[in-house]
Amino acid sequence: MTSSIKPEQSSYSFKNEHIDVGPLLTDEKLKFLQAYSKEEDLQVLKKRVIDVRKESIEKNHVYRCIQHIMFLETRFDKHQLYPEMINKLKTDQSSRILELGCCFGTDVRKLLMDGVSSDQIVASDLIPDFWNLGKKLYQDDQIVNQIKTVWGDFATSNAQEGVDIEKENWNSSFDFIASWFVLHVFSKQQCENFLKNVFKCLKNDGVYVGMCALSEKEGEWLKGENTSSAPRYLHSVSSLKSLLQGIGFSDVHVNLAENKNRPQQTENHIIGIFDARRRL
């Protein structure tokens, strides 16, 4: 494994753009945060969001989802397989779900709100910084501290450089794995490594679900003034489907998702939603 393949945090950053988030903080945007936190005062919630966003941008790498406060949105429930997943997790207490790239943990909290037990959930990301800020945002340390978390690189085939799947006992361990807007931050090789590791960690008939940015034509993400020097790779609908099938996934579906009111990173980006099963 060469160092050029290992993800560097600096490659995930955009230059900080001055964005007036006030107009973005609508009552609808705050709906999940309010329901989860049970805080009635929207002004209190707005200040909390602004403060957490500011701290994240000052201390961590700048993602577009943080610039545009998209971290307040839940993604799990937007997937067509979510009812199936929730039913399985609630009726079979031995079933488990892993979220990769959990960021602030909004979707983990969606699972908790919908009745999934904390001991069925594992959350993972490259670093713990965003997760810790999520505790400030949702003010629920005692609740989420019961969830197992693992920090490290999941996009490498070298256990010494990232998450050690063997050590974590993750081989054939999860009924469901999810990653929301993660695949497009990788190079082509990193993406393949990541998906191979997902395949290893799923049980037989386990399901991988997610969303990501795609392009009409696959290729390296062209570097503009707001991107870093590290090359990322954008798959197309067909190339992502082919990659998943080539790794061994069955029942692969990659489709375009509705993209209403979502800021585009480039005019050529499209949003994909996907699912695939591991069948031995």
General description of the model:
The protein has 280 residues and is α/β, with parallel strands linked by helices. It has one domain: 3-Layer(aba) Sandwich (Rossmann fold). Helices cover 31% and strands 20% of the residues. It has a 7-stranded mixed sheet with strand order 3-2-1-4-5-9-8, sandwiched between helices. A two-stranded antiparallel sheet has the order 6-7. It starts with 30 loop residues before the first helix and ends with a strand. Belongs to the class I-like SAM-binding methyltransferase superfamily. One of its GO terms (biological process) is methylation. Pathway: Secondary metabolite biosynthesis.
- Structural class, from secondary structure content? alpha/beta
Write the element-wise H/E pattern from the N-terminal end onward.
Answer: HHHHEHEHHEEHEEEHEE
3D shape: globular
**How many angstroms does the end-to-end distance come to?**
28 Å
Largest sheet: 7 strands, mixed
Number of helices: 9
| CATH hierarchy class name | Alpha Beta
Poorly predicted runs of 5 or more residues: 1-13, 224-229, 260-267
Radius of gyration: 18 Å
- Please provide the count of β strands: 9
CATH topology: Rossmann fold
Please name the fourth-level CATH homologous superfamily.
Vaccinia Virus protein VP39
CATH architecture: 3-Layer(aba) Sandwich
**Helix fraction bin:** 25-40%
Q: In percent terms, what proportion of residues is strand?
A: 15-25%
